[in-house]
Sequence to fold (126 residues):
Amino acid sequence: MKHDVQHRQDWFAQIVDERVVPLLQRAADQATQHGSTAECLKKTDEIGPAAELIISPPGLPARAQPPRLTIRPAPGGQRPLSIDIAGTFPNAGIEGGFGAEIEYDSVYPDQLDEQILRFLTLALGE
Fold:
């Protein structure tokens, strides 16, 4: 099991710069064009390597956690990527206000575009 986790982390390290970060940067650029601020970054934490997209839509309430998409190697199973979505999203609350969302999923690399577009729609409230 430990070998599988290390293998996934090594594989992710290879694709993060050539595939994952460019997709997230394009999504950040789209969010900026819609009046949001956005940040795309790579990080390594206690769980391991990850790439993140953080979007702050206009009107986000003070102290609310901005929408955050985190992509990292999945810890196991057939699907190699873990997708975590968390934060406060427009139109997720009562009567079109802001509301909190948390979602976790594992996906195949060819599903990454779809997941990023779904997150972008949630984060921008469209």
